[in-house]
């Protein structure tokens, strides 16, 4: 048995040999991309890649066929990347993105819920000069932005304890809007009731289902019954109307004060860090130098490894995915679209080439936005 | 400009050269694994891989650094795969999985909801000989299985139009249960009311929020108000109690009949194909030759590309992921665990080696089950 240092020395020597061949192969890829720019043709020709793999696999022992397949898949994938990048550099118009000016200081912004809801607070943190208007549902917010009644809408997309708000992603697709801002806000729920209410007199708590989930342990400890409302501020308003000391709301302190409730206890959420990420949506796609995040939605061809293949492309460009989640495609059972966020900027060549590659290789791609990411002060 | 055939001939020749070197490198990997079996030591040594990459990148032009990084990452990853596979073949006890006999014909099975709910129907399709008992909540089902009151529990995990039931995944982790079966069922909602109710007399419809979402378009067309209930059968029962022709339930035809309602219209769901996937949960991990699916949950170290890296491992083993979704980790904002289903069987060497590699390289891995996948007749 050889010493590990000796084996590693061999490995390093082999890797240097492979590198030389790899650089030659990338030169060939450049020739291919020049040829395709002159003569047309897709960069990805699945039949050519399958044929190449089949040919190569003939000379490989069974126990290394899968390992080599991964290597060749990566080789051809980064070869395509190199081609897309060069082609887009030479002909930027290959990537068609209708980028319009961003409304950075909107006059009228809609949000879901009632005044003093967390959505209202996020709205005012994002757009302190805007007139803010509450809507009954998130769909109403999206509709108002599409119609032009509002310059922007503010809605929650994810909570650090409850997870993704699926409905918002469905609405983004349905109404064809774009993300212009992202803002993380610390959520601190309190429990509040009408005058004379105490923690012991309470039997039922009213709130939004997510807020109730975020306070599960607290609620269980007290043995309260749960009643779901459409919004935490709606719950606070209802408790004020009912004026019944057996009922309390879980809401923001601002909502408790606005509706004249007494705060029975603050910070009743289970986790110390309960944060919600909000987005602003606008009618057009925009991009600015300070943007640090890009969102897109894509669908895959239904083949083995295709999700992995599409995610690998992000790593090939050195672009870090911060989120991925799937949603079912309407009327196509067990087929999904994937929503992906990554650290990028639509004005950067890497991000643009990545998107160009995805649009060439996925069944469907829509860029949902390029935007800056802000956080409420004190957020970790 | 050369002809594309000539360039491709060069590429094929280069790939054959790379293959020879790759096979030599895999021989070295075998030596490394023999060394580590004899002397101990982890297969993945991140500092060694970083050092190797840094050394290699010195000789590479800027525009190819990312491409080569992907190639080397894949090379080292499949080299580790080759080592894990050999080590586990030589020493199967390296993978510790406490596999117990499966209860294939349970006596007592609990489900959430009421008799004639879809969950009850799924239950009887999976376990026709079992005594079935309804529980108020999914958590009650999980608790009863943990306590030994029930031999198995049946719960829904995913709907083809509404998506994942996040709560079930959280409960799987919280109660430490295992998946023993998976069953897809076609969901056909009807709308039903008390005697004398017509589609025009109805003003409000009661149902589970997911069922309401699945009938969104139908409900919108009729302008009905929505009222959320905990279960479709609970809604049917309530409508029977209320005996008010302005109110109707959205539920299964079986539930409508059981609670003496008149069916106003059948198949009111939006999609033609509305299917729900149910799982059976048991106290212990089991595996049988006919199993075709494996589920697991893992957490990643928080580094760039690590999600992609972990998914790449599935492709390296030729194992097809059928599902992936993330859930927030409690008390760790914006950190996630990933639930992954793939086509595999815990008794197969490929699946076992994959799991061994993941347990060695991820921060946390738990196998959630190995199980057969059944479908209601007529399901596409």
TrEMBL record, chains A, B:
Extract the InterPro entries matched here.
Answer: ACT-like_dom_sf (IPR045865), ACT_dom (IPR002912), Chor_mutase/pphenate_deHydtase (IPR008242), Chorismate_II_sf (IPR036263), CM_dom_sf (IPR036979), CM_II_prokaryot (IPR002701), Preph_deHydtase (IPR001086), Preph_deHydtase_CS (IPR018528)
Record domain Chorismate mutase: where: 1-83
Q: What is its main location?
A: cytoplasm
Record's GO cellular component, any one? cytoplasm
Catalytic activity as recorded in UniProt: prephenate + H(+) = 3-phenylpyruvate + CO2 + H2O; chorismate = prephenate
Alphabetical list of PROSITE patterns matching this protein: ACT (PS51671), CHORISMATE_MUT_2 (PS51168), PREPHENATE_DEHYDR_1 (PS00857), PREPHENATE_DEHYDR_3 (PS51171)
Matches recorded under SMART domains: CM_2 (SM00830)
Segments forming domain Prephenate dehydratase: 108-283
One Pfam family, short name? PDT
Q: Where is this site: Essential for prephenate dehydratase activity?
A: 276
EC number(s) of the enzyme? 4.2.1.51
Q: Which UniProt keywords apply?
A: Amino-acid biosynthesis, Aromatic amino acid biosynthesis, Cytoplasm, Isomerase, Lyase, Multifunctional enzyme, Phenylalanine biosynthesis
- Protein's pathway: Amino-acid biosynthesis; L-phenylalanine biosynthesis; phenylpyruvate from prephenate: step 1/1; Metabolic intermediate biosynthesis; prephenate biosynthesis; prephenate from chorismate: step 1/1
Record's subcellular location: Cytoplasm
* BP GO annotations: chorismate metabolic process; L-phenylalanine biosynthetic process
Report the domain of life of the source organism.
Bacteria
Coiled-coil spans in chain? none
Any one GO MF term held by the record is: chorismate mutase activity
Residues forming the ACT domain are 295-372
Q: What does this protein do?
A: Catalyzes the Claisen rearrangement of chorismate to prephenate and the decarboxylation/dehydration of prephenate to phenylpyruvate.
Recorded protein name is Bifunctional chorismate mutase/prephenate dehydratase
Specify the species. Butyricicoccus porcorum
Lineage at the top is: Bacteria, Bacillati, Bacillota, Clostridia, Eubacteriales
